[in-house]
Amino acid sequence: KNEANGSNKIRRSVVVHDCRFENQEVKQIVLDTSGLDFNDFLQVVSKTFHIPSNETFVLTCTDRKGIDFDQYEELQEGSSLYLLRNEDQVLPQATLERIIFLPHYDTLIRSGMYEYYASEGQKSLPYAFAELIDNALSATSSNTGMRTIDIRLLFDESMGKPAVVIMDNGCGMTSKQLNSWAVYRLSKFTKGKSTFSNDYTQYVRPDPVPRSLNSDISFFGVGGKQAVFYIGQSTRMITKPACSPDVHELVISKEEFERKEQNKEDIYTGFIRNRKTGDSTHVTEEDERFLHGIIQEEAGKPSFTVVVVTGVQLEHITFLKQDFHLWTRELAHLYHYYIHGLNGNDMRASYRNSDCVSNIDIQISLLEKFPKMPRMVNLREIDNDMQTLYINASADSFEFKAYVDTEGTVEGILRYHPFLYDKETYPEDPFATPAVEEEEDDCAVHNHTRAKRPIFECFWNGRLIPYTTVSEFDWCALPKKAGAVPAECYSRISGVLFTNDRFQVSTNKLTFMDLELQLKSKDTLFTRILNGQEQRVKIHKEFLQWLKTCHEKWDKQVKFKGFKGTITRMDV
Amino acid sequence: KNEANGSNKIRRSVVVHDCRFENQEVKQIVLDTSGLDFNDFLQVVSKTFHIPSNETFVLTCTDRKGIDFDQYEELQEGSSLYLLRNEDQVLPQATLERIIFLPHYDTLIRSGMYEYYASEGQKSLPYAFAELIDNALSATSSNTGMRTIDIRLLFDESMGKPAVVIMDNGCGMTSKQLNSWAVYRLSKFTKGKSTFSNDYTQYVRPDPVPRSLNSDISFFGVGGKQAVFYIGQSTRMITKPACSPDVHELVISKEEFERKEQNKEDIYTGFIRNRKTGDSTHVTEEDERFLHGIIQEEAGKPSFTVVVVTGVQLEHITFLKQDFHLWTRELAHLYHYYIHGLNGNDMRASYRNSDCVSNIDIQISLLEKFPKMPRMVNLREIDNDMQTLYINASADSFEFKAYVDTEGTVEGILRYHPFLYDKETYPEDPFATPAVEEEEDDCAVHNHTRAKRPIFECFWNGRLIPYTTVSEFDWCALPKKAGAVPAECYSRISGVLFTNDRFQVSTNKLTFMDLELQLKSKDTLFTRILNGQEQRVKIHKEFLQWLKTCHEKWDKQVKFKGFKGTITRMDV
Ligand SMILES: Nc1ncnc2c1ncn2[C@@H]1O[C@H](COP(=O)(O)OP(=O)(O)OP(=O)(O)O)[C@@H](O)[C@H]1O
Ligand SMILES: Nc1ncnc2c1ncn2[C@@H]1O[C@H](COP(=O)(O)OP(=O)(O)OP(=O)(O)O)[C@@H](O)[C@H]1O
Ligand SMILES: [Mg+2]
Ligand SMILES: [Mg+2]
């Protein structure tokens, strides 16, 4: 019962299989090698197996290589050895060799590297941050007051080495939960069944809520780990659940794994430090002194979680500093409906429906060395993310629902961006890289519309899945034959889909598995939502009617007819 | 030193931390609970910590929940307990609690699910097969004779349950190598440093070879495991290295993991069966009787590896049967240059350069129940994969090389597909789904050309990375201003890039990380290869000259000029 990774020099036993004789059962005997050198061991073998002194034998590993002094020293605990007359002799009987195949620790520390660093290069760092925000959203979902998520980039060298800190005022973790945080691929679905069961009951899917903003954004049991090791090389989790006066701390780091490997210690063991709140006496390293401040903030908080990532990659630091507005905007985009509530960031709304106002504060601060000023932004303040642009440039909207199978539900909104006087109002991404943008179709209107881009951005449990878009449905696509509505009106719509987690996403939450495929199944049922009421209608007809109305009501083309010549008014 | 996953009912010790007194050091004592019920244990605690009988105390877990009879029984080996005066008391000192955080076994059995089941749905199954072919290519790379990779789909129920079998005549594995096969994320780069070191020397990158066809297609230490558990639920590895007379067998299965979890056994231990060749006496299950035949084939083979996957998902079986021609074609595409050699499948070549002929046979057989006939195909026979179509429809080619940094090398070929008489010869994918195909540009020529699709398919170490394409380079893109060559000629080129593994790919080998980004760096140096000779020239000019020549030499437009009217010849 020893799942050790290395040989134990002090106490070591090996299994010797006596395979010398064709017609004899293979006897296997466990021999304790502790304190024996190779010669001693050979003596013990001779004696144990009653080998006459005039009989020759060889002792090999199961790869049939004879053992010498050095190899003997290197043998691992529990190794199987063969006792043979000669090295090439056929085994009289099959032998069973006990092996251990613990996943390598790169499972934890390198997985994120390939998960996030998709074909998009540096742009993927915000998606690693998103995993930590996902966790904080889940943890704060039962909060009664504000849900505060505080991301601090501590890049002030006078305070110690660079660190990325993510704090939330959520439920925190018991020490058992903190332990299972570190277990790779232990998901909420498997927790119930596993040995960690005393801490968890079977996972219960949350009740349906509008636009699936259910804060239940955990799925695979990998996100947090992949994210922290994509950002840096060491993580300190500091957490306190409401039910206990103690704070729990766990450090997992690449360095620690390498040290354990070197010393042939168990790779997947560690220590949780349980301590009173505010106690930072264990922080003794000079370059970690920023931790004292963080730990002092614990006072008075009933529960919280702090993730401290150090060993941050240099290129990440550069990116986070230089492209601050870019990646914070991307986060504001991902969590648009969590931050702004059900109706999103409608800056024109004269009334603010209090039902829809969000209690989620996601605050980001970047601290550099004096005299550089700190930069701070609350994601709610960002008003140039694409959803904000779409919402505020829309004149009208069309809501619908799609049912796939029995449990897959999708809510959808289409928005109309009219032509006004002399230009399209369809919003353009001010930061789009030219490479991504498609060539404009020459036959279409001359300023910006959606053109051939997909209509829908897609949100999963309320959170944007950034690399999946849905182009269109047959009922809202430009018809082959010219119809009642001018073709260009079809390029004036943007859209959003909100799915629940019956639709699967990839482990890195960057793409849906097969959302479009499922939605385009012939069994998918569409209904229209009008004034909050669901209506079973012909969606195709409804849409066409809506689009026609939009065109007539909102598009305003000014044409100067009957040009007569230029006159100059002398009277002004 | 016990990295166990469960409690051991027979022998169990717990660590009791005496946290009763504010100003006293926390004493921690390991107590053996074996054979003690809860009351006995309380007695032992009282005695050990000298607690006066009139003093009350509570015993809690580190989550501060008091322990009762049931919880006591459930305590795991090595658990930490607190001895307190009351449950809310502040810890006088920090305690260290030993934890184990072994990755969950879903790491092995579910990872592939999300890796391959990308946004493409069912179409990803061939890419799981590809991981096993990758491994077989690596294993056979030192073969002197033929390299044979045999994929058999045993779907004949009269022979047992459905099985997918991949056999190769490569180097096989020693039992230690078979052990490390099972270690998730143990890559060739980490092997050298790890505890498995006695079997491996530090990884040596192979010398550069033309088009990077180096058969060195292992990278992450995950491919085989992800693939087999994406295909099915159980894997039997059967292998024999040349240096040993023994065959090694290892079974890893979902069922086995679940059983070990239930019985609280170590999750990551198992047994390798070492046996003589051809010995199938251990196969006793009726539904595995197809194994007898496979094991009988071992006779006389110096070394080999057989991967047997069972518990194959039903939808996979359906797909493999129904779309046989589709997925075999996709494999022929992935390995085109391994199967056909350096110059690819040029069916028009009058001579066959013996240097370029491949010794790799990838044979696929699908066996169903009589009277269904078996289907067999050697990937080399497939002549409708896109590379074959491109090669055979090309009239001319332009070879080049790109240097990125010091070690990234890319070889490239552009091919010209001329306009002939009345139509374009640019090959169309006969199986392309309409959804993927872009709308044809109305301004371009009226039959099929590349249109806006990317020019380059990309091969990594000679193997196609299917989801990454490179659109173009500035020197071969259609210039903004009309130039010496008609615009439509730019749509008549297809291309291939061959990279070495200095360019990173994602773990599932479906996408490059940032190939395009790197290639488009301003430091990238392009040279032209002409008649096998590298030339440092202005690539832009060379390309233009080549394209012009292609147009003049190969494009043949027939125009009927001076139409006079229809006449009827009465003399025939
Ligand atoms: N900020 C937090 N507060 C409380 N608990 C947390 C927090 N972050 C993580 N956890 C706990 O740790 C577990 C593991 O987190 P992790 O992000 O690694 O995986 P996951 O969220 O379960 O799944 P996914 O792979 O989808 O992210 C979570 O399920 C949750 O129970
Ligand atoms: N058919 C085979 N013959 C011999 N050895 C093999 C074979 N298949 C796998 N192996 C060994 O097992 C190891 C693990 O294989 P696996 O495919 O899981 O990972 P990998 O090939 O190392 O990396 P990647 O994730 O890129 O596939 C290989 O590195 C190789 O040493
Ligand atoms: Mg998570
Ligand atoms: Mg592999």
CATH H-tier superfamily of the largest domain in chain A: Histidine kinase-like ATPase, C-terminal domain
Helix vs. strand class of chain A? alpha+beta
How many separate domains of chain A? 3
User: What best-fitting shape of chain A do the alpha-carbon axes yield?
Assistant: elongated
Catalogue the ligands: adenosine-5'-triphosphate, magnesium ion
Query: Approximately how much beta-strand content do the residues of chain A carry?
Result: 15-25%
User: Helicity of chain A, in percent?
Assistant: 10-25%
Explain what the structure shows:
- 2 copies of one chain form a homodimer.
- Chain A has 572 residues and is α+β, with helices and mostly antiparallel strands.
- Chain A folds into 3 domains: 13-84, Ubiquitin-like (UB roll), CATH 3.10.20; 106-345 and 353-381, 2-Layer Sandwich (Heat Shock Protein 90), CATH 3.30.565.10; 386-433 and 440-557, Ribosomal Protein S5, domain 2 (2-Layer Sandwich).
- Chain A has 16 helices and 23 strands.
- In chain A, helix 5 crosses helix 8 and helix 5 (125-139) packs across helix 12 (324-334).
- Mean pLDDT of chain A is 89; it is low at 1-9, 196-200 and 435-446.
- Bound molecules: adenosine-5'-triphosphate (ATP) (2 copies) and magnesium ion (2 copies).
- The site of one magnesium ion has 6 residues of chain A, from helix 5 and helix 8.
Give me some keywords for this one:
23% helix; disordered N terminus; eight-stranded mixed sheet; homodimer; 16 helices; Ribosomal Protein S5, domain 2; Ubiquitin-like (UB roll); alpha+beta; Heat Shock Protein 90; 572 residues; seven-stranded mixed sheet; binds adenosine-5'-triphosphate; binds magnesium ion
